[in-house]
Each structure stands twice: as structure tokens, then as C-alpha cells.
Amino acid sequence: MPEKAAQKEPGKKPVPSKKPKPQQEVVVQIPLSELHPFPDHPFQVREDASMQETAESVKEYGVLVPALARPREDGGYELIAGHRRKHACELAGLTTMPVIVRDIDRDAATIIMVDSNLQRENILPSERAKAYKMKMEAIKRQGARKKALREAKIEPALPEKETKSA
Questions:
Q1: Cα torsion at 136, 142, 145, 149 (round to 10°)?
Q2: Radius of gyration, alpha carbons of the chain
Q3: Could you count the other beta carbons within 10 Å of the beta carbon of residue 90?
């Protein structure tokens, strides 16, 4: 049996899709002075030949991959990923940097920060260990929150037992 092609009926509006639209993120230029390091960031930004190469690249081509940051309660932004790029911008004499601003909680930011840095080659074992510990603690906290939310939603209030009077 051949399938019928969906035909638009005259005068009827198409039904909007029930699928959620992907969240649009935009890249914004943020002054370097408003970008603050992630608290307890386990990875050092080193002044080495690799950093000099990065700074020269930034000077010549600009920042090719935007950093990721989240808003801080007391103003400015907390860098999640892009600490080396920020330093390279400073060395290159730039005053702003392309950044994606994402409103996420501390635990999600920690996981992203660790994952975005672990692929680097020159990470000290102590940096790697601290990063994994931070990530594990963040995942545990997220799991505890999700479990508490699940339990709060799953366990409905029980109706009081009715008593029959004879």
C-alpha cells in the first residue's frame, strides 16, 4: 500500500512541533578584566614556550575557540574553560575575548572545567588528581540532589485513614 503524502489543507495553520528547540548560545566579547578564574582551578597556566606560541597565534589570528564562562553573583564572569586563552590574550595585548556565557551551577561547571582540560598533554599528576577529585565530588553532589528531587516527587502525601464510627 503506498503511503499518503501529508498535504496541507487550505486555511489550516501547521501544528507547531512539540520538540524543544535547542538552546541558542551566543559568543560575546567580554573585557578580560571581567573574567575571573574558576575557584580552586587545579590546572596551572604556565609561562612556557607553548604559551608564547599560543599568544603569538592569538595576536595573529585572534581567539579561534571561545572560552566558556558563567555569571558571578557579585558581577563579572567565572571562567570555566579558557584560562590559557585568557592569559594568551593578555600577552597579545588584547582587552576582550570571545566567550560563551552559560548559566549553570557550580557542579556542572566543575565537571565541564575538568573534562575540557584533561585532554591536554602537559598536566602534572597532582593537577590530574585534584581535577578528578573535584569532578567526583561534583558528581556525588549532583546525584544526591537528583535523588532528593526524585524522592520528593515520587512519594505522594498519603491520605489519612478514615475511621468508621459505629
A1: -140
A2: 25
A3: 14
CA distance 83 to 44: 9
**Residue that the C-alpha cell 589570528 belongs to:** 61
Nearest Cα neighbor of 46 from 124, 128, 126, 132 is 124
Residues 6 or more apart in contact with residue 124 via CB below 8 angstroms: 44
Whole-number average pLDDT of the chain: 79
Among the residue ranges 2-11, 93-102, 116-125, the one predicted with the least confidence is 2-11
Cβ neighbours of 127 (radius 10 Å): 17
Give the 3-state DSSP-derived string for 16-61, with helices as H, strands as E and coil as C. CCCCCCCCCCCEEEEEHHHEECCCCCCCCCCCCHHHHHHHHHHHHH
